[in-house]
Amino acid sequence: MDPVVRWKCIAVGRVQGVNYRSRVAETARRHGVVGSVANRPDGTVLIEVQGPLGSVATFVEEVSGPRGQSDAHAVRRIADLPPSPDLVGFSIHRG
């Protein structure tokens, strides 16, 4: 069984104003991971995701690249956080 991980990631590219946050939330629900997504003032998107390592890795892979109007050129893991039992669901923040 995969260990539970919690990653903080930054998505760069055409990721604001193109329904990218909705794409991220939909992908998270499909993979059964929890966390949040938010726009940042610098034009990037912050993603925090928690779940089994394999599910989190596949999720990050799926939210990378082009789809629809969005194109996340890169989704980089910037921090490993301790898993939180308080995280439930996946939320979209305005940021």
Your description of this structure?
This protein has a single domain, classed as 2-Layer Sandwich (Alpha-Beta Plaits). The mean pLDDT is 96. Helix 1 packs antiparallel against helix 2 (53-62). It has two helices and six strands; from the N terminus they run βαββαβββ. The chain is globular. The chain is an alpha+beta fold and 95 residues long. It has a six-stranded mixed beta sheet with strand order 4-5-1-3-2-6. The chain has helices spanning 20-31, 53-62; strands spanning 4-14, 34-39, 45-52, 65-67, 70-81, 90-93. A hairpin with a 5-residue loop joins strand 2 (34-39) and strand 3. The relative contact order is 0.35. The termini are far apart.
Q: What are the segments in which pLDDT stays under 50 over at least 5 consecutive residues?
A: none
- Count of individual domains: 1
Question: What structural class results from the helix and strand content?
Answer: alpha+beta
| Largest β-sheet summary | 6 strands, mixed
What is the second-level CATH architecture?
A: 2-Layer Sandwich
User: With helices defined by DSSP (H or I, 4 residues minimum), what is the helix count?
Assistant: 2
**CATH topology descriptor:** Alpha-Beta Plaits
Share of residues in strands = over 45%
Write down the secondary-structure element order. Answer: EHEEHEEE
CATH structural class? Alpha Beta
Give helix % range: 10-25%
For the biggest β-sheet, the strand order reads: 4-5-1-3-2-6
Cα-based radius of gyration, to the nearest Å: 12 Å
Instruction: State the separation between the terminal residues, measured CA to CA.
Output: 34 Å
Total count of strands: 6
Mean pLDDT reading: 96
Shape: globular
